[in-house]
Amino acid sequence: MSGLGEKKGLSTSEVADHLAIQRSNASKDLNQLVKEGRVQKSDTRPVRYWAMVNEKAPENYVPSYMENRPQREKAHPQRVPAVKSNRDIFSTIIGANGSMKNAVEQAKAAILYPPKGLNCLITGPTGSGKTYFAHAMFQFAKTNQVIAEEKELIVFNCADYANNPELLMSHLFGYVKGAFTGAEQEKVGIIDQADESMLFLDEIHRLPPEGQEMIFYFMDHGTFSRLGETGKNHQANVRIVGATTEDPNSTLLDTFTRRIPINIQLPFFEKRPASEKIELVRVLVGQEATRIQRSITLTEDVVKALIGSVSFGNIGQLKSNVQLVCARGFLNHMQAEEIEIELMDLPEGIRSGLIVLGNRRNELAELSKTLAPKVSVQPNENLNDIQSDAYELPYNLYDIIGDKAALLKADGLDQEAINHFISTDINVHLKSFYKDHGFSFNSVNKLSEFVDQKVITVTNQIYEMVRNRLQVDFQQNFIYAMSLHISSFLKKIHLGEERQTNDNIRQMVADYPEEFAAAKEVRAFIGESFRVTIPESESYYLAVLLVSLRTTHSSGKIGVVVAAHGNSTASSMVQVVKQLLEVDQVTAVDMPLDMPPAVALKKIVESVKQVNDGSGVMLLVDMGSLATFNSEIQRETGIAVRTVDMVTTSIVLETVRKASVIGTDIDQLYDSLRKFRGYGVVTNEEPAQQNHHPKAILAICASGKGTAQRIKELIQSSLSKRQNQSVEVVTLAVADLRSELESIQQRYQLIASTGIVDPHIDAPFISLERFIDQDVDQLLDDILLDNELSYEDEVQLDDQQSKAICIGYLEENFTYINAKKVVDPLWQFSIELIRDLELNDARQGFQINFVLHTAGMLERIVLRQPLTVSTEELADMYHHPQYEQLHVHVQSFARLMNLAIPDAEEYYLLALIKNHQEKELYLK
Question: Lower CB density within 10 Å: C or N end of the chain?
Fold first, then answer.
């Protein structure tokens, strides 16, 4: 309140920024203070607030929406309250006697098994309710007096410490005083906190091998040591429950999974029966009704649209959609005792769920049998004992909506404008919260990551065309499969390629004259839409695709196995493909870097057997070395296997799409994949000449070490996430630009450059400031997707922004220096040096580069790992005309930091300065 004491006051935004809270929350709280007479507000724009000082409280304030309607007793604003009961908590879980029956029985067995229960693993897709189920298990244990009533469930997200085993160990087991710098007193870990209780390890697949070994040693012996201790001096009795979205056999060590005897698998939302889906909607709507203490009524079509809107997000996505729908309904009927929601009240992304459901006729028929014309839910209907939910909003959305509407109305806005502002705000609140859970409100937006939007639009028109002509219903994946097919052959046309049909394709199409006739119309329509000439042979492939998409064939398809290094690289690609194409003949084999080759081969063999359907298996791998498994797999299984390396998500999409088409020959598929160029946008340009040189990103460095090496590591780390082993990172000192650049361009296909100077090549340039300040993954994604990255002007930063960039970079990439403490002396060191050496033309980029390099120097000195140079190079440095000036500043800086700076480090500081001066000459 101290800032509010000044008469000029503060705006809502200033208060929100200072307190790091939502602007809407700040507005509500400030208005409450006005109501209480503790704060006064101005009549100006923007509204400003200041504290009342010996003044009478104003009489007029904006009332909360709750004051304009009769109050009734309501539950806790955001958490559904717990009701003490001895009943079986699992009986309240929807599907306990249906799709969840096996999971419930396993959970009960794990809890009650004598003498101390069994450790278990909960697996299931994103949003399937793993966290909710773990809390149910804990509540069941307390109800059955297996765990004391006063104990709490300890939750630990393994993803937070996946890349730092020592930090992971300190959090799990605690540490002793003096274990590391800053360990000023002993601290207990979460194992201690979970003693005689339960520990829930979420995203357990993110545990590094070292972390898994720590946990399974504790499982075996029940003893552990804190960080900094030598013996296993502590004991604890902890029940461990893990959760993962990944295949545990691919992402966890075998020695770890053997110690978890029970694997509880939760079902996909789409696999649940209609009655459970309806009941889930009812329960989730009931939670919203309890929060606002109003009854909520949904029409039959609204319930169907909500169910149809769920794709890969499962129950979590359904919950987010229900919250969005109820929030909009509350906005439209704020003063009504009952909120009625009809189909036209839904946002387009959710309303389209009804269309999606229309393509699943069996499911739609099953829902129609069970659903009443209207579903009405009363508040306080669905209270239960489970108080925690990973998808629970941490604030009361309805209070925000109501009070914001009151504020806007008091400001003179009409109802239409109020609805517009708050509808946008609802989306911002919910999307901001749910983005961490991996799904959004639009269930079809992933396709546009691979295919041009115009192709998707044309495909939607084709869908209506062929459905009306053939009078048949197609599979739900029609839009995805047809869009990818069209995008692929348009790219071939653009590159001047043409494929010929073989006799097998012609013979098969001869049995489907109607589909062939429709395919000819589709070919003509595509040609007109994109103004290209499409060969007649394409009609046969389009006909085969139409035949394949109208019926589901249970045999004869080519299986696909994706094998890649990393904890979830292959699974991530396969998940995207399954979501887009809804197929089941593809599986993933994730191979952690420490997995022995023999184990990897065994897993691949098992997967090949699993997906084999009689027509062979395509093996897609990330490294050429895995291709050597090909003959061994064929020899062991007797299955025809073809291997393609350098796998990407686009290659997996193309492989699975073609493998799903009946009549596809594995050798023809293999040949086509070797020629696959990706899904591109068709233009009227002539086919470009192919560049067969390896792709590379050029990193232009100052000294070639320190910061330059960090940048290279960041790029390589980002590339490794998408397994882009075909892209290299080439470093080059700025002084060598003139002499070496042409040679590099002859050896590599440069797709981008980054660093302290733009080399002016025919590829995007990412400035040093932009590279450090922005999301590296996103920048590289833009480059790798057809090299489409806009050229941007140099980023202009002030000192405060530049320091913030340096602090963020240092905190993320350095371990032994305190970024916030060293940045000011580093910055002052650079300023004084620039001034004394008269580097007046030094841009912000040089100063940032100098600070980051010097920070690296500090860490190297602390670790006693300084850079080295030859005696001749040191001699050249001592005779350089600028060395004496540099040496004076370095010694002053060394005294300030209480460190001895080696001469070799001075050599590289001088190299930075020389390279900057040479860069300026290069630019001129």
Answer: C
